[in-house]
């Protein structure tokens, strides 16, 4: 047996950390991890709410080039805007018919990036139409439910004043302030013809409302949020082609709430920015989703 002790093993980062090109992504099969990719988000094509482990979870689908798409889930939706370029970390692939598409994961990070080019032509895709409704609010229901950051299941018995909580599904004991708030609900507006319309609120719509109206102190309090909505003289509601409220706000801002927060809360880093100028660093966005 011969022993060789002078082999050259140059240090190299694992493949999952490598930055890939779109062409390399298209060559991958489904369920493959993509460490880093930079892409320009071109257009939104769908907005849906699906059930995941018994809880409603929002997703939004974008085209990012002429050959692939990107599905953005849940809390990351407000981090992505059409026409801007981003650096995505930790994505996975899946098959959609005969093409490979990307999807975010619970570990995905999104950062703004230098402008990335776009193709001269795009794959024909159906884009979701949107309708903007500006009418008084006749009624509203907002549910702010804590969710386990590990298994993502909603919690029915979390006590905000307790320092820890054991997940009701995965049974892992965690700090209470580590649980993430997820929103759902309904807003009822009165049309010009006097007919009421009941519209489903998405998580991103309510979160955007909380951020843009500086309501971080009661972000976890569904009752307080409902009172703030009813105090608006008129609401501006953007409804997707699927009938979901994707943006929600008031043309005349309500008076600041006097409701005291339950537990600790921090103002988000981007609270002084409007939705069109929101930062893409998800670390700042996460603050509003904390249970306390």
Structural class: mainly beta
Order of helices and strands: HEEEEEEEEEEEEHHEEH
Into which percent range does the helicity of residues fall?
Answer: under 10%
Through-space gap between termini: 64 Å
Q: Order of strands in the sheet with the most strands? A: 1-5-6-4-3-2
Question: Assembly type of the shown chains?
Answer: single chain
How many strand segments? 14
Mean pLDDT across residues: 80
Please tally the helical runs, counting DSSP H or I stretches of 4 or more residues.
4
The largest sheet is: 6 strands, mixed
Count of discrete structural domains: 2
Question: What portion of residues belong to β-strands?
Answer: 35-45%
Unreliable sequence segments? 252-282
Shape field: globular
Using only C-alpha atoms, the radius of gyration works out to: 21 Å
What does this structure look like?
This protein has helices spanning 22-26, 203-212, 222-230, 282-285, and strands at residues 33-40, 43-52, 55-63, 69-73, 85-96, 99-112, 130-135, 137-147, 164-166, 173-175, 180-190, 196-201, 235-240, 244-250. It contains four helices and 14 strands. The protein has two domains: 15-112, Beta Barrel (OB fold (Dihydrolipoamide Acetyltransferase, E2P)); 130-289, no CATH class. A hairpin with a 2-residue loop joins strand 2 (43-52) and strand 3. The protein is mainly beta. The model is unreliable at 252-282 (pLDDT under 50). The radius of gyration is 21 Å and the shape is globular.
């Amino acid at each position: 047996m011969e022993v060789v002790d002078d082999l050259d093993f140059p240090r190299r980062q694992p493949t999952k950390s490598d930055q890939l090109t779109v062409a390399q992504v298209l060559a991958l099969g489904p369920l493959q991890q993509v460490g880093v990719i930079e892409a320009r988000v071109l257009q939104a094509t769908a907005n849906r709410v699906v059930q995941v482990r018994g809880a409603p979870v929002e997703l939004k689908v974008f085209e990012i080039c002429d050959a692939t798409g990107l599905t953005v889930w849940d809390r990351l939706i407000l981090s992505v805007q059409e026409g801007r370029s981003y650096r995505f970390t930790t994505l996975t692939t899946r098959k959609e018919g005969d093409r490979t598409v990307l999807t975010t994961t619970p570990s995905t990070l999104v950062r703004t990036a230098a402008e990335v080019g776009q193709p001269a032509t795009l794959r024909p895709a159906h884009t979701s139409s949107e309708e903007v409704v500006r009418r008084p609010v006749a009624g509203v229901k907002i549910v702010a439910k804590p969710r386990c950051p590990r298994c993502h299941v909603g919690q029915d018995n979390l006590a905000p004043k307790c320092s820890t909580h054991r997940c009701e599904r995965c049974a892992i004991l965690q700090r209470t302030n580590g649980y993430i708030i997820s929103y759902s609900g309904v807003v009822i507006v009165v049309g010009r013809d006097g007919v009421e319309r009941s519209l489903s609120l998405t998580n991103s719509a309510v979160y955007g409302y909380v951020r843009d109206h500086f309501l971080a102190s009661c972000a976890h309090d569904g009752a307080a949020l409902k009172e703030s909505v009813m105090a608006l003289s008129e609401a501006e509601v953007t409804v997707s082609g699927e009938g979901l409220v994707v943006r929600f706000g008031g043309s005349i801002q309500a008076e600041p709430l006097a409701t005291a927060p339950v537990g600790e809360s921090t103002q988000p880093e981007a609270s002084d920015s409007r939705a069109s100028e929101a930062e893409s660093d998800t670390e700042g966005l996460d603050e509003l989703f904390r249970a306390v």
